[in-house]
Amino acid sequence: MSDQTAPVSLEEFNHRLAEISETMPKRLRQCAEFVAQNTDRIAVSTVAELSIGAGVQPSAFMRFCQLMGFSGFSEMQKMFRETYAQKWPDYATRLDNLRATGDDSPSALLAEFVEAGRLSLENLASTVDLKTLEKAVDVLAAAPMIHVVGFRRAFPVASYLSYAFEKMDIAAVLHDGVGNLNPRNAIRTGDVVIAITFAPYSQETIDLAAYAHDIGSQVVAISDALSGPMRKTDALMLSVSEVDVGAFRALSATISLAIALAVSVGAKRDKLAHGK
Amino acid sequence: MSDQTAPVSLEEFNHRLAEISETMPKRLRQCAEFVAQNTDRIAVSTVAELSIGAGVQPSAFMRFCQLMGFSGFSEMQKMFRETYAQKWPDYATRLDNLRATGDDSPSALLAEFVEAGRLSLENLASTVDLKTLEKAVDVLAAAPMIHVVGFRRAFPVASYLSYAFEKMDIAAVLHDGVGNLNPRNAIRTGDVVIAITFAPYSQETIDLAAYAHDIGSQVVAISDALSGPMRKTDALMLSVSEVDVGAFRALSATISLAIALAVSVGAKRDKLAHGK
DNA sequence: GATAAAACAGAATAAATATTCCATTTATGG
DNA sequence: CCATAAATGGAATATTTATTCTGTTTTATC
Which residues lie near nucleic chain C, judged by CB under 7 A? Predict the structure, then answer.
């Protein structure tokens, strides 16, 4: 009947969960997975509900509780109900709690980034130019090949775009600058370039966009200001203003915009491929 | 028997409570006072417990619930439980609905990603393990060299971490898999590895973390579940649960956590270098 | 201070929920 | 491939918990 020691805190619980979930049989591992991902529901749910969530029988869930060191579900739930009160307060309060731990403590910093990200997202929703976005989707959906370029701070965005395109089987290439090869030769007329750059704008990105424009390729730009250096490329400009924390920013809004763009392109291509 | 309208939100509940508690008889007012002061316990307590807390009989508490507009205690508790469990929308079906109504426009998708990002960030604020975060910062601040590894979906996070470290003049190397070189030889005892991976976990990342652990290096892991495959490396586990939109996620929370980690390490190093 | 109405406590009952048990299936070692 | 053990599903049972009911007490009204 499992070890005699039942966890008495969330940390102990998580530790034990991680420790034994490796060696669990199938159904019990399902429970472990579900519980790990939905810890907060335990305090307010019944065995029946949780076992449905985990996709197992109630009796299996009971066995899981016992493996975790409790006498049964009730005892396990009791632990979660006792530690429940602290988690209750709303987002604003929790943020204050994080901040209260000292000025440049990790948690205070995290709070700043979280808040900055949230603000950026809200801002994005209200300021993005939908017409341009739709146009960009149309152009990209029709492109034989998509080139993604972005360095330094923009590189994570560029790489995530490439990942998304790859996952959707869309022909795209990430120009990552490895080997200092000249990427121009890969761009053919008709291809579309997604150029991502923020101030201080990186010259390579601007150059590549300019080149693409010269040879008659359409450019979609993701940047932090409408009046950036990409203007002369006739690019479809998607501008995102991200809230900074000190010298850094969290990229939440930019990445959200990028992934929405990519998925939209995927959806559009599906539509074009199947009926009309 | 009270108004026919039961409160459906915390606000409505509090409003109604304030409204009618004036005119309540003695015992029921005791209930009202206790509930006002212990709102957070309702979701996780039984009638018996609450009535003891309020100093009344269970039957009195039942009458209180009915006065508040509910059919009984269970219905009232249900409201609190639902309010608490932040209902993460099921975006898979939500997207299906969007498609069904023909509205999978880029703007609709963008709205979904923005919303998902917001939820993820708010959730991050309340679930991050501060102790582990601080420990990770300490370890990284003391590391002679930081190795960052993460592929596929985790690669943008890894690259952004590297960018941040580089900007702060912190010795860090991004293992990007270019050239299929074996990255192990670069890791020396004492170095610290930041391994980022999400389900389905990439074998290279796990292997590298395991190797680092074997040669006595500390591992900091950023993942989506506590009980991930990184367990046996004794890693400092930072887990982030991100809300998916269909098959994709916006990475908002993960990137925010990563950048907060990096900046914290920078701050800590400054402190170690100058003061103390 | 008498009377009616409302409020109450406590016990009895009903409903929901956890837990156990056992037959059946699935994995494991020889 | 067989024998044995482990794991599982589903239903039966036990326990907890909510809810209702009734006799009694308090409170308000005249």
Answer: A 26, 46-48, 58-59, 62, 65, 71-75, 77; B 25-28, 56-60, 63, 74
Nearest alpha carbon to residue B249 among B70, B150, B142, B114? B114
For residue A69, count other CB atoms closer than 10 A to its CB: 20
Within this chain, do residues A151 and A269 fall inside the same structural domain, yes or no?
yes
Which of B9, B42, B44, B269 has the most A C-beta neighbours within 10 Å, making it the best mutation to test the interface with A? Answer: B44
Instruction: Clarify whether residues B167 and B215 are in a common domain.
Output: yes
Structural domain total, chain A: 2
- Torsions phi, psi for A59 (to 5 deg): -65, -35
Q: Which of A43, A122, A255 sits opposite B250 (nearest CB)?
A: A255
Q: Which of A85, A104, A253 sits opposite B40 (nearest CB)?
A: A85
Query: The tokens of B4 are what?
Result: 């026919």
Query: Within 7 A of a protein CB, which nucleotides of strand C?
Result: 6-11, 16-22, 27
CATH number, domain containing residue B78: 1.10.10.10
Q: Is the distance between the Cβ of A57 and the closest atom of strand D smaller than 7 Å?
A: yes
| Structural domain range at position A40 | 10-86
Per residue in A33-78, pLDDT (tens digit) is 999 888 889 999 999 999 999 999 999 999 999 999 999 999 999 9
In the complex, which nucleotide's C1' lies nearest to the CA atom of residue B25?
C7
Contact state of B227 with A17 under an 8 Å Cβ cutoff? yes
Task: Indicate yes or no: CB of B255 within 8 angstroms of CB of A252.
Answer: yes
In a shared domain, residues A60 and A149: no
Q: Kindly state whether residues B151 and B245 are assigned to the same domain.
A: yes
Which CATH number covers residue B121? 3.40.50.10490
Question: Are A138 and A219 found together in one domain?
Answer: yes
* Chain A residue with minimum CA distance to B113: A256
- Domain contains B259: yes
φ and ψ of A222, to 5 deg:
-115, 120
At B276, the pLDDT band (50, 70, 90 cuts) reads low
Domain end, chosen from B84, B102, B121, is at: B84
Q: Tell me which residue of A218, A217, A250 sits closest to A237, measured CA to CA.
A: A218
Residue type, A80: F
B127 and B46 within one domain: no
Residues A180-195 have pLDDT tens digits of: 777 778 889 899 999 9
* B196 Cβ contact partners less than 8 Å away, ≥ 6 residues apart: B148, B149, B150, B154, B157, B158, B161, B205, B221, B222, B223, B254, B258
In a domain, B4, yes or no: no
Please, what sign has the CA dihedral across residues B151, B154, B155, B161? negative
Query: Do B134 and B193 have their domain in common?
Result: yes
